[in-house]
Amino acid sequence: MESVSFPPLSRVAICGGTHGNEMTGVYMVREMQKQKMDKTGSLSVSIILSNPRAVEACRRYIETDLNRCFTSDLLSSPVTDSTPYELKRAQELNAQVGPKGSEEAVDLLIDIHNTTSNMGLCFIFYSIDWVTLHILKYIQSKMTSVDIRAIQLDLPISEAYSLESVGKHGFAIEVGPQPNGVLRADIYNMVKEAVDHIFSWLQEFNSGSTFEGGEVEVYTLVKSVDYPRDAVTGEITAAIHCQLQDNDFKLLQRGDPIFLSFSGETVKYDDEELYPFFVNECAYYEKKIAFHLGRKIKLTFPSINLTG
Amino acid sequence: MESVSFPPLSRVAICGGTHGNEMTGVYMVREMQKQKMDKTGSLSVSIILSNPRAVEACRRYIETDLNRCFTSDLLSSPVTDSTPYELKRAQELNAQVGPKGSEEAVDLLIDIHNTTSNMGLCFIFYSIDWVTLHILKYIQSKMTSVDIRAIQLDLPISEAYSLESVGKHGFAIEVGPQPNGVLRADIYNMVKEAVDHIFSWLQEFNSGSTFEGGEVEVYTLVKSVDYPRDAVTGEITAAIHCQLQDNDFKLLQRGDPIFLSFSGETVKYDDEELYPFFVNECAYYEKKIAFHLGRKIKLTFPSINLTG
């Protein structure tokens, strides 16, 4: 693979509290603001609490899920009296660190999330982006005691709905398991370490280092599975089975139990072998998702350096 | 110790959803209603979703914490336009399964809760009550693979603020760790098994069995510890230390780390040896409680049988 070059990655945004009850990002962003980390070596860092009203209320969102508001259509929709708070806030953020798809957008946008699923530390991104893959590989090489994985959502950038899609490069860091509204020190430390490594990589890159190409494993989203539900009331009639609970990224095979109904029956998996993730994520009950299923692929990436 | 006698314990209430985002009780109550378990052998069972509006919103409460509304003063306070929804609901529940302290109250009230703390299955009750201690001992003997503990809150019944205080006998079953808004099958099964054993004990008692006296360990609440906070903003400046996190009921000794500040300093425990519980409970951030501390005591209880 031929090597690729990019201009300096000096304008960075670190966001937390995009979902107001995911506490790692909330406290990380507040601490970075307190430590005045907006100038760090070659980096100019925007440190952003994305959804302050939801943080204040300790809820995922006030009117609508902020992290579904960053499609090109929504970002350019006119504001009226009935525009939800979060869509207005998305347009503000787009003005601050975007505009999405423009030359003025920050070079790298990192958005910190938590999940109640047992997913360890997970990058989530859209199109295959060499910078993101290099940073992923770098962190994997530095944090060997932690499971660091990546999920790729295959959507064109205009349809990419989450905050990280506003940067020229960007990804979400999704870390769990952590209950909403709770801050765990182990997870806080893990994310802090990851952010420190990202900053180190950026400094090295901006100072002219070449990073060799390589290969990473990535999970691609194939489909989502809903809970069994009562046909009349729509209420769920089963929980994630104990053998699937906490087993994100372990290959699901035909015949494996996936649900346990409240009356005691086991529902078994009966489809092609895929990898589950976001298993029993709190916020996905309302989105009718019990878990996602994905395929594991290998991505090869070229060596990377600063534009000449 | 002399043996004691009680009249039949035939009117029972099983409550869930007193906090609307604690899902075990919500789904257990719905399933018991579906299975029409209101008549079970010698038992007449009121199956109650305590806070339906909070359940609907998947929040702990709508206006005020329902499970702090059951003091005698609050239950007898006049209802006005500004009375919070939950206080009105408390008075409704008191009319339905109480009135508290009266002969008409249900014989046994069990309220099902979840915590984000790693507390296993835990009984919580007020005054020392022989029926509760017998049921506790019985469940401990039946469910040997689960940590089953008990916490006693030493308050006179008139000041007892939670729903279980409305029954002639009563206790909360507090089970964790489970994130708010999430249902775990392992915890659901554990609580289901406990409720089944409670029903068995009641049937045996009502049929005239004598239960021998014995001894149980109980934790009594000594005090609560708040998070370190910023003197100006009031925001927390530290998380529960990794060495305390998930270690509910493990003796805390002088010098043990209890908090890790966001800037990296460890705060150590510097007080008498006590047992922590409700460590990092989500709902207690707003109550300014990082964890409770208690003492472990042994309680001896007499043999018990039906009034002759």
Automatic annotation (TrEMBL), chains A, B:
**Residue ranges the record marks as coiled coil:** none
Q: Where in the cell is it found?
A: Apical cell membrane; Cytoplasm
Q: Say where the protein is mainly found.
A: membrane
Tagged with keyword Zinc: yes
| Pfam families attached to this UniProt entry | AstE_AspA_cat, AstE_AspA_hybrid
State whether keyword Aminoacyl-tRNA synthetase applies. Answer: no
Q: From the Swiss-Prot or TrEMBL record, what is one GO molecular function term?
A: hydrolase activity, acting on ester bonds
How and how many cofactors are bound, per the record note? Binds 1 zinc ion per subunit.
Q: Which cofactor does it need?
A: Zn(2+)
Enzyme Commission number(s): 3.5.1.114
The enzyme class is hydrolase
Q: Which residues form the AstE/AspA barrel-sandwich hybrid domain?
A: 215-295
Kindly state which keywords UniProt assigns to this record, in alphabetical order: Cell membrane, Cytoplasm, Hydrolase, Membrane, Metal-binding, Zinc
| Membrane topology classification | Peripheral membrane protein
Q: Which residues form the Succinylglutamate desuccinylase/Aspartoacylase catalytic domain?
A: 10-199
Kindly state one GO CC term assigned in the UniProt record.
apical plasma membrane
Q: Which residues bind Zn(2+)?
A: 19, 22, 113
Catalytic reaction equation(s): an N-acetyl-L-cysteine-S-conjugate + H2O = an S-substituted L-cysteine + acetate; an N-acyl-aromatic L-alpha-amino acid + H2O = an aromatic L-alpha-amino acid + a carboxylate
Q: Which residues form the active site?
A: 174
Which family does this protein fall into? Belongs to the AspA/AstE family. Aspartoacylase subfamily.
Q: Please report the name of this protein according to its UniProt entry.
A: N-acyl-aromatic-L-amino acid amidohydrolase
